[in-house]
Design a protein that fits this description.
The chain has 248 residues and is α/β, with parallel strands linked by helices. The protein contains eight helices and eleven strands. α4 runs parallel beside α8. The structure holds ligand BV8.
């Protein structure tokens, strides 16, 4: 593959699977018997905030005991040594950032932070050991000390950074690269990014454990665990691109 001008990367739950974070399909989309789509919604937060709060607080606590894996590190290397890139993640963990990726857009929000329901102001609460799954948290930004919600994009809510993503897709040219890693292609608008990138002329490459719903959107498909597939793939790309540039 010739050196691309830009690289747009999209990741899903599969890139964090080898860090020990279960994917949504692994659990058949269930958490303690609840369908994720029934817990990760504004109506669930209104109807049963305690269950939703517990769902996210337990997942935030689980983040404290996991580390980035070889897939996160390979993507961080691609971003550091390769062409200009943006990494759009559907994941709400912080493993790309902890692996050293800098240009990361967490389109579905982040477990790390909480959002004031009144002002919309976010606070990073990852370090708070005393966040427990049975007690809501009030903000410190309003006189009324409003309740804080998980800083997560729920089903039916507009994903974050849509304008930035659309701008990147519009700027893609033939020969650019759209790399998609570890996603089943179930959730929109994320699942449409590869199709749109291809329409812009970019080469679309998939790394996934098995063929997702949108496998036909890809010019190149590498099936296997991202932690095993990505490091040699990134190595090969960087080597051939540096040879193209005449620098070895
Ligand atoms: C929107 C945060 C409008 C929550 C998430 C009715 C009402 C409203 C909207 C809809 C509706 N019906 C449909 C929709 C659209 C809806 C949608 O797509 N629903 C689906 C279920 C059909 N989308 C929305 O609601 C979105 N918002 O549409 O607003 C709008 C849009 C644009 C502009 C203006 C307005 C919001 C969607 C965001 C929801 N929030 N996350 C939380 O995390 O708790 S989505 C959540 O599920 C995850 O973040 C993730 O994105 C998704 C799961 O997908 P994947 O990441 O792909 O994970 P999955 O487990 O499915 O697959 C893992 C893959 O990895 C597998 O293929 C597996 O083979 C592979 N794998 C496993 N191990 C490895 C591996 N690959 C490599 N290596 C391995 N080791």
């Amino acid at each position: 593959m010739k050196r691309p001008g830009r690289v747009l990367i999209l990741t899903g739950a599969g890139v964090s699977a080898e860090s020990g974070i279960p994917t949504f399909r692994d659990a058949d989309g269930l958490w303690e018997g609840h369908r994720v789509e029934d817990v990760a919604t504004p109506s669930a937060w209104l109807r049963d905030p305690a269950t939703v709060w517990r769902f996210y607080t337990l997942r935030r606590q689980a983040l404290l005991s996991v580390e980035p894996n070889a897939a996160h590190r390979a993507l961080a290397r691609l971003q550091a040594e390769g062409p200009p890139s943006l990494l759009v993640s559907q994941n709400v963990d912080d493993l790309h950032q902890r692996a050293g990726s800098e240009a990361v857009l967490s389109m579905h929000g982040q477990l790390r932070s909480l959002r004031c329901e009144a002002s919309g102001r976010c606070e990073d609460r990852m370090a708070d050991e005393d966040l427990d799954e049975h007690r809501f948290v009030s903000c410190s930004c309003c006189a009324t000390a409003s309740r804080m919600r998980p800083d997560i994009v729920w089903f039916g809510e507009r994903p974050l950074g849509m304008d930035t993503i659309a701008g990147w897709i519009d700027a893609l040219r033939p020969g650019d690269l759209c790399l998609v890693v570890g996603t089943s292609g179930h959730v929109h608008p994320a699942a449409g990014i590869a199709t749109q990138a291809r329409r812009s002329g970019a080469t679309t490459v998939l790394v996934n454990l098995d063929a997702p719903l949108n496998v036909d959107d890809f010019d190149e498909v590498h099936l296997g665990p991202a932690g095993a597939v990505l490091p040699p793939l990134v190595e090969d790309w960087l080597r051939s691109w540096s040879e193209d540039a005449g620098t070895v």
